[in-house]
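[scheduler] slot 2 assigned
[scheduler] job type: sequence-to-structure, two independent chains
[scheduler] chain ordering preserved from manifest
[runner] begin chain α
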Amino acid sequence: MTDATITKTAFFAVGPETVWKYLTNKEKLAEWFHGAETDLAEGEGYSLGEIKDDCSWNKIIWGTVQHWEPPVKLQYTFNITPLNGIITTVTWTLAESHGGTLLTLKHEGVGALGDDALGLLMALDDGWDEHIGRLRNTLKDENQATPDCSEH
């Protein structure tokens, strides 16, 4: 199903190198998405989630980085429990635009669930909106320079 691709775009007032860090660095990912056990790396598996009260890792999203082209394109497999083993793909594309960055996200493969796909597509679509909004707010803070008032 070609109509089962979630596509999002957003503009950020920082360069692609900065956005790339927020997509791949475990500390930066935790600020807007989910915590990561390690930095994302080419060809490596990853796990995003949270630490539970008993200090164990609660894996929410997992997969393998498939394409690594800093700071232009990041692609990884994306699996969550509701996908029942169906592996989907998330692709982030970054392009310089008007002194900032145009970020495009494509999440493909959810349609493999067939008739059961709509509810999950809607939940993922809403989730990506929320996470990209948090990334926008986080990067706004990153872009706001604190004035140097040390001379006064």
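[runner] end chain α
[runner] begin chain β
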Amino acid sequence: MKLINIINNYTREGEAPRFYLKADTALLRNNDAFYIPDRLGVIVAEPQIVLRISRLAKCVSERFATRCYDTIMGGVVFTAEERLGALRREGMPWDEAVGFDHSSALSLDTLSRDAALQGAIFYVNGQESARINFADMRFAADSVVSHLSEAMTLRIGDLIFLGSPAKIKVKAGDNYRLVIGDKVLLNFDIK
């Protein structure tokens, strides 16, 4: 299973979706607590809508891309912001800053892709911190799937994190909740 992260869905960088990959050890499941790594400096959280690939996809045109994913999930991507900046300046791979163990929280529950049209709301300690709407994304989900299928074969179970409009500094003691419609997809603590 691949974890594919879109990085420019809420910026003006590039003419097409830009992405990086993570190993499956980056998954944080079951609403387990996220433990802030000591050695990586400031960590930021980015709430996201996640697509789960439901059929093999290679060189799929945008008009058929909807057939390649059946459900959506909620996710939060954790990034070591300062470390990422240093790695970028040095021209080094980003793995240490973005791909560390448990750096991608993922909901167990799934919703139909139509449910995502409602958008997601991300709460920190019960206060709304971000809204994620498909309409605000620079690249529509079908466009992302089509583009990625040109670059690599997408397999059943691959996860596409569609990007985030917000970065929230991670603090021990916080509670994170991600809701789509009336369904709480994520509810976990930061330690």
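[runner] end chain β
[qc] chain β: The radius of gyration is 16 Å.
[scheduler] slot 2 released
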